[in-house]
Predict the structure.
Amino acid sequence: MHLSPRAEGYTRVARAVVASILVLALTRFGPSFHSLGPHGGLFGRLLYLTLLTAGLPAVAVLYKTTLRPAGCGLGAGDSLRYQKWIVSAAVLAVGGGFVASRFQGMRDYYPIYRAVLDHPMLWVPSTVAFSAYGLAWEGMFRGALLLGTQDVVGKSGALILQTLLFAAGHWDKPPLELLLSVPAGLFFGVVALKTKSILPGFLIHATLSLSVNLFCAYG
């Protein structure tokens, strides 16, 4: 059955929301990889979550629609136009990571992969794995839910939509992080709207995450 452009748009929004909620549910209640051992279990779970988070929302918004991957921020967009601003924000993220690491709740939670404290060489593969998962997160929230729906529900509506689900994805994080997930979601959303790409937000977010982990471990 052929849908009108308006109906196709709202169907795409509904699929994006359902796919994202399903991803969050499967993240919480999905399979365990403990049988792979302490290290294999972590990397196996991260691989599963990365493929799930990157794939399901992307299929939801791109399947049988006129929307192209670039429309979901899967490209450089206007990033070069804002490169100085992006680098400045990444530098500030390091300072933000230091401040966040001063809170005991954050220090009790991070670094997530505690094995790095006894085996520093594991920082490299674990950072790569978590970064890949982080890129998938940006693809779901700022790509599928924000850039992939703004033409239907408007920029403000899409911004609020992805922020609410982004905050829901932090429900099991430390109280400070959960509280800040709302302004952070709005901030990363504005970055994506300005640059028409998920990559700048990913760079800033990854810098913040790595800084928090390092400062909590050694700061």
